[in-house]
Amino acid sequence: MRRKKSKIAYIFSQFPETHETFILREIIELKKNKINPELFSLKKCKDKVIHPQAQEFLNQTRYSSLLSFRVILALFYFIWNKPIECVQLIPYLVKANCSSLEFLIKSLAIVPISLYYAKLMRDLQVTHLHAHWATIPTTSAIIVSKILGIPFSFTAHAWDIFLPNPMLKEKVRCAEFVATCTGYNKNYLDSLLDYKENDKIILNYHGIDFDTLPENHKDIEDNLILSIGRLCEQKGFPYLVDACSVLRDQGYQFKCIIIGEGPDRKALTSQIEQLELQKYIVLTGTKPQSYVFDMFNKARMFVLPCVISKNGDRDGIPNVMIEALALRTPVISTTVSGVPEIIYNNITGVTVSPRNSQQLAEAIIGFLNNPDVAETYVKNGRDLVEEKFNIKKNIKELVSIFIDRAH
What we know:
Layout: E1 8-14, H1 21-32, E2 38-43, H2 52-58, E3 61-62, H3 69-81, H4 83-97, H5 101-109, H6 111-124, E4 128-132, H7 136-148, E5 152-156, H8 159-162, H9 168-174, E6 178-180, H10 183-190, E7 201-203, E8 224-228, H11 237-249, E9 255-259, H12 265-274, E10 281-285, H13 289-298, E11 301-303, H14 319-326, E12 331-334, E13 350-352, H15 357-369, H16 371-388, H17 391-405
Parallel strand pairs: 1-2, 1-4, 2-3, 4-5, 5-6, 6-7, 8-9, 8-11, 9-10, 11-12, 12-13
């Protein structure tokens, strides 16, 4: 009997999202591999900066408000046509999220829009649903799965599994498979399984399309230190600012550019002013990828001193590290989470202890004083990302998984 052709849908919290270029690259590569997923976003894109590659997807992504006439019609459609499933849905979500009022409210709030998307997916004959992030998007995927009776899977990243997530174990149990982007995450998710399912949790690294990278013409500005990321606790920017103070006090001339925006901007600005580092450190705000790539070509090094935040939030493997190594920029970071899976200490870069500004300053000084050593790390780092973080290769692995398991 001929197997029915699969049709895959993706659901996101917001798509596109400026800081989530790894998801954008995944969708682009899936389309190149003749998998054209239907795209659903729980929130409309409101980013001020939208990458050029993301523009085309704005018209291809389905958006909706949480409540609208169409959403209400879909709600009544399923109450009439799937009464048992609808009746069972609310107590299921309440029981699964009873330990967190925040998650309970959010889970119940997305029921109507999830049913609306379920109606659209039914009409589109979707056979498999994949969610990005193990939080509310995967809750929506479970709702759709229970209503339509189709399997779902999801990709877990970092904060979405390490911050409180009352349904996480249930989501892992119910999913057809779970993809994640670091071995560190995989080990943690494996530990949630009541019995060993060797192929349930799949390591699938993010990657970069080397064909889309700009030509690597290094035009290094004297002692330019580059850092990129959302201005939030887990990026560790205060320790970079303190390290810059050490450099200044030791007489080094340098400039540190931090690209990104976020809730900690005011605190960082205040710290920079208190340490009188205004002539050394610049906070640029969010910039397009073309600007970011240009700065990689000018930077002496890339520094991102990741930490585990007080609430348990952390990075996996920051995608800017993949970009830095691909563009032959030496990297300094910390031993947090999945970072050692890409920055092998004294081989592809340098890692220091988290929350240690003195060690960070010493590592930066080491690069400034020994550029030849840094160049060795650059070669090794480029070789590593070509081997492990090539998105063409990694997406082919994901495509194989979809072909085998999406039905």
